[in-house]
Amino acid sequence: MSDRPEPAASGGQTARTAPAAAPRSRSRLFIERRRPDSVRSNPNAHWYVVATVCIGAFMGQLDASIVTLAFPTLQRDFHASLAAVEWVSLSYLLVLISSVIAVGRMSDMVGRKLVYVWGFLLFGLASLGCGLAPSLAVLVLMRMVQALGAAMLQSNSIALISTSTPPAHLGKALGVQGAAQALGLALGPTVGGLLLALGTWRLIFMVNVPVSVIGFASGWYLLPRSRNLAARVPLDWAGLAMFVPAISGLLLFLSLGSRDGFLHPTVFPILLIAVALVIAFVGHERRFRGTPLMDLALFGNRTYRNCVLGGLIAFLVMFGVMFVVPFLLEDARHTSPASAGLLLTVLPLMLGIVAPFAGRIADRVGPRTLKVAGMACVAAGTGLMAARGGVSMPALLTGLTLSGIGLGAFIPANNSSFMASVRPQQAGAASGMINLARGLGTSLGVALTGLVLGAVEGKLTPPEPASVEDGFSAACAMLAGLAFVGALLSAQRSPVVDHFEPAPAESSPRPGRPGGS
Question: How far is residue 347's CA from residue 185's CA, in Å, rounded to a whole number?
């Protein structure tokens, strides 16, 4: 992972060039560009990679948290129902989560830098299409394209950092990336409210366009060319054909079930179909003789398995808390939505503050200690809020603070441990897997806390403050229990081999490929 100066292509070195028959335009647009010598020879060049990735991390989380604020405005402008408007978010989530593994797998073959920079361009163009959408149908379609661009970014973000950062700085680098995500998540409601106040809902999409241009230019000039790529083989199209509807079905079940009831006659069959597709997908991947879409053998690695489960639990708890707290504040405490949103930023704000420092500590003492301590802190914070006295404002603030600190300690350490458990040729697919776990955790957090809250508070409209408090406590107790399970998983010892050894010079040839890298 060292970022040594690139030797000239002479003598025994093989220069990275396009095949002779390739047209010049293709060599410029679809071949990864060599970084300027001044960047490549800089001993801090890996921080340029981190900064570029942080642009995408910040923009992605800002966009995710900003769109829901526009739902009432979209309803009025398009004269649509809330169920129809919800597809602006649901369609984005379905495409993003169902495609991120396949995009990561493709990135491992064609180049992570190439896919990442074109992801910025696609995201920016789709954001422009969203801002100019003349109808709700066009807006939903553009959101789906935007989600594909986001998948190209997310499936490579952690992989780019892990394959270009020296091992001694990897935890800190992933902590900085986690802080950028937390900052985008925290600022989303504030920025969204400001943009809606300044103009129409179209501004919340237009703001992505200049950021995407900056990200594209930064990635084109500052990101290193890809190393240790997997050999180009046909994509597992049969596996993809089963995986996409399986994941989409699970997400649809969680989304529609939280609204209409999970046993609703039009909802429960979606779960049965999704489960059948998951079983078929697992059977296909085990029998597939080529390169599978998802290497299930990796789940035999305890570190890999526990990191995936830990990441899912972390985001389940985080978004579960962020979902359930506003109900307590607005329905039981009669707090204004603006004040509730401001109070809720305590969690992502603390995550963003702690993550870079936690990453630095993980580089020195190892990720396991930070993972256990972080999840234990999350369990303490949610446990405090679950106590009957946790509904008081001081206890709530303390619980949110502890949860944010714990997540800030856990997430970068978990990502570092996870990426060290796979080989460089699998970095893109692994990065896609951790983002898949994040997406599923987000959906499960909202669905499960909503289910517990609704079951306890009853059917009264508006609900009684006491029943809301009971439902809040029950939901937080569930989240505390899950965080405790995450701490136990993190405490398990397992041998970890750091596969991210220093990369060869930037002009060394790619394995299994003609020409150089």
Answer: 10
Between CA 42 and CA 26 the distance in angstroms is 29
pLDDT beyond 50 at 405: yes
In angstroms, the CA 158 to CA 56 distance is 11
Distance between start and end Cα atoms, the chain:
15
The predicted pLDDT at position 141 comes to 95
DSSP secondary structure, 399-436, as one string? HHHHHHHHHHHHHHHHHHHHHTTS-GGGHHHHHHHHHH
- The alpha carbon of 169 is separated from its chain's Cα centroid by a whole number of angstroms, namely 21
| pLDDT over 80 (residue 45) | yes
Rounded distance, CA 402 to CA 350, Å? 8
What's the rounded Cα separation, in Å, for the pair 3 and 222? 12
Structure confidence at residue 401 (pLDDT): 94
Sketch the domain layout of the chain as residue ranges. Answer: 30-231, 237-289, 297-501
Q: Count of residues for the chain?
A: 517
Mean pLDDT of the chain: 81
Q: Report the C-alpha gap between 452 and 444 in whole angstroms.
A: 12
Residues 6 or more apart whose CB falls under 8 angstroms from that of 386 comprise: 473, 474, 476, 477, 479, 480
CA dist., res. 132 & res. 4, Å (int): 45
- In three-state secondary structure terms, 105 is helix
C-alpha 188/C-alpha 194 separation (Å) is 10
Q: From residue 351, give the alpha-carbon distance in Å to each of 68, 404, 506.
A: 22, 5, 35
CA pair distance 403, 377, nearest whole angstrom? 6
Query: Is 386:191 a contact under the CB 8 Å cutoff?
Result: no
Topology classification of domain 30-231: Growth Hormone; Chain: A; (1.20.1250)
pLDDT at position 497 is 46
* Residue 336 tokens, joined: 């204004």
| Amino acid found at 353 | I
Report domain 297-501's class: mainly alpha
DSSP 289: S
Contact 248, 98 (CB under 8 A): yes
297-501 and 30-231 share a CATH fold: yes
Query: Rounded to an integer, what distance in angstroms lies between the CA atom of residue 261 and that of residue 82?
Result: 17
Distances (CA, A) of 497 to 88, 285, 303, 488: 42, 25, 10, 21
The reported pLDDT for the residue numbered 140 is 93
Amino acid at the residue 484: F
pLDDT higher than 60, residue 432: yes
Q: How far apart are CA 251 and CA 287, in angstroms?
A: 26
Encoded amino acid at 314, one letter: A
Residue 66 and residue 341 in contact, taking contact as beta carbons nearer than 8 Å: no
Q: Would you say the C-alpha torsion 362, 368, 369, 375 has a positive or negative sign?
A: positive
Handedness of CA 389, 326, 372, 365 (dihedral sign): negative
User: 121-143 pLDDT, tens per residue?
Assistant: 999 999 999 999 999 999 999 99
CA dist., res. 267 & res. 143, Å (int): 24
